[in-house]
Amino acid sequence: MKVEEIEDFFRALQDNICQAIEATDGIGKFREDIWAHHSGGGGRTRLIQNGDVLEKGGVNFSSVKGEVHPRLRQQMNLGDNDDFHFTATGVSIVMHPKNPHVPIIHMNVRYFELSNGTCWFGGGIDLTPHYVVETDAQFFHTTLKSACDRHHPDFYEKFSKWADDYFYIPHRNETRGIGGIFFDYMKPDEAGNGNALSKRQLFDFVKDIGESFAPIYTALMQKHRNDPFTEQQKQWQFLRRGRYVEFNLVWDRGTKFGLETNGRTESILMSLPPQANWEYNFEPQPGSEEAKTLELLKKGLNWAS
Amino acid sequence: MKVEEIEDFFRALQDNICQAIEATDGIGKFREDIWAHHSGGGGRTRLIQNGDVLEKGGVNFSSVKGEVHPRLRQQMNLGDNDDFHFTATGVSIVMHPKNPHVPIIHMNVRYFELSNGTCWFGGGIDLTPHYVVETDAQFFHTTLKSACDRHHPDFYEKFSKWADDYFYIPHRNETRGIGGIFFDYMKPDEAGNGNALSKRQLFDFVKDIGESFAPIYTALMQKHRNDPFTEQQKQWQFLRRGRYVEFNLVWDRGTKFGLETNGRTESILMSLPPQANWEYNFEPQPGSEEAKTLELLKKGLNWAS
Predict the structure, then answer these.
(1) Assessment of whether the complete model's pTM goes beyond 0.90
(2) What ipTM did this prediction achieve?
(3) Which of B246, B265, B277 lies at the smallest CB-CB distance from A275?
């Protein structure tokens, strides 16, 4: 399988997702920026702003090529002496809705290939409701579990735990949202706890995850787009977006890597919300919907069981 | 000189600054939280919100004691075998005004002492105008230069350059604001390019810097508190605050260190603005006041000369 086949899939995935999101939003339209990366390759960043459902959302495709950066070498435990070139391609998405009852969502699917033949897939999808709705959390996780189960019986358990650990804000002792799945360094000969999947099988899994995005999120957009909300609930949304900023800028490995290796800043930071607030030492009223949400932002809740 | 003398000065500095800020603001009052640090010692955090001039401002005093954390050991190039205890004490300030013509300001003065007798001072003060006003930048830098010059002829040149390098946002290729001074690891036997200052002399310098804060900032509050501003200028302020968030969460060493060593999150993040916005790929109109400000957010402008 050549890298072009994977790039073509990711490009088409970006097209299909943007089309589904636009159709569901009804008003917002994506604008596109085509850009080149300083080391080679480039991408196309698509932004939707001020839609009917979405306040700001980004869907980014990129395929960056170049020599392996020292920072990446270190992160991947590569030797110093070989002349490694890489291709890194993928699709990244973050959506910030207007209505605080519609959740924030993030998805990323990606593929790395080194000139020595090593390659791997990675990705993840996680949901960050401003207000946790248990039936939505169950729907989200059971949909992801079905997608995982079609490819390997261990994937959901392993990758949902990985998401709990990855999408976690240590300085707040909170998960970012209600989790999802996260996976990385899935190499053809090592994946699946000893039950190796071929490269084609891994790609099929990643395709399935990528294609699960639009049905999941358009359903949640439709379900909650007309939920009434108060000014106080909008303020809570701004505070939760503040946490989203904290996670992305302080802890997210992909964001840090992108910023430190001189990636395209506007594409990396398209994940940031249009507006975020911070209020010193804010604590919701005991028993409130906001307090209930905080109680559900923790690891190991097993929404799919 | 005992550490208690330095702690007493920092406590009094916090008191004096809060008093001067309250008197100038006229409406806002500081509320205080006393807290203990998990490793020993603690602090008192004071927050002012919704004042007449200040939208949100924090003045934090702390004196934290404990065993040297592995993360700090590494940062300070300490050996692994000795049983180091430390005291870290200081005052940190960030002020976010309502009026976009009043600048954001930050100040920090601090002192570290290790159980082996090693000690050093550090600190800095920098100004982040939403709109750069050249006469304000000159006033700010010449005031700091005078304070530096009273203690060592090389300090201003050295520390203003250090501030340009420290308060810099690589992924935006912008300085955070118009700089100021920054200094660290000033040890009694090493400071001043070979012209050693005694511990008492270094403390006198740090006192002078700390005491320069209130006169500088109350003057700028008064000068601009009643400047008229438009909704579009307020929006620009929110975008500039977004950059402030990016600097503090991605690049600021003190913030990262605090969050990674399980410091008191609300005291560390009191530096974040009450509201920050991000707009994809925003670029001000050529020739506008916003564009002129961006042109002045670079290193080496020599405002004091």
Answers:
(1) yes
(2) 0.93
(3) B277
